[in-house]
Amino acid sequence: MGVGSDYPYSQPKTAPPPEPRFPIPYKAVAAALIRHMNIHEGHWQVYAKFERNAQYTTWNGAVVPTCAVGVTEFGLVKVDDATPISCHAPDVWAEPEAFTAPIFVVGPPQPREN
Fold this sequence. Notes:
Layout (H helix, E strand, L loop, with lengths): L25 H11 L6 E17 L2 E18 L6 E3 H6 L20
Antiparallel strand pairs: 1-2, 1-3
């Protein structure tokens, strides 16, 4: 079998992401968690811990090796200095509007521009 458009493994079958999607900036997530955990000191950023699992699956009638990746932990981690995705906790409490994602606005969903 040659590698090309007729090769069954060269065209992955992925579903489009479900709609509607609401992307939230990292800083807005970090600020929400800082408020939720009642943290008032330090620089904090969001982290995610992933776990992978190798397995075999059937795809187009053939058994192929695959890797499943899942998020096993999600939270905040304290960092020594500011980073592009960290929040300074006192700033979150002093200026809450600066760290609020647009989707938190109460009201009907607005059409998105593509």
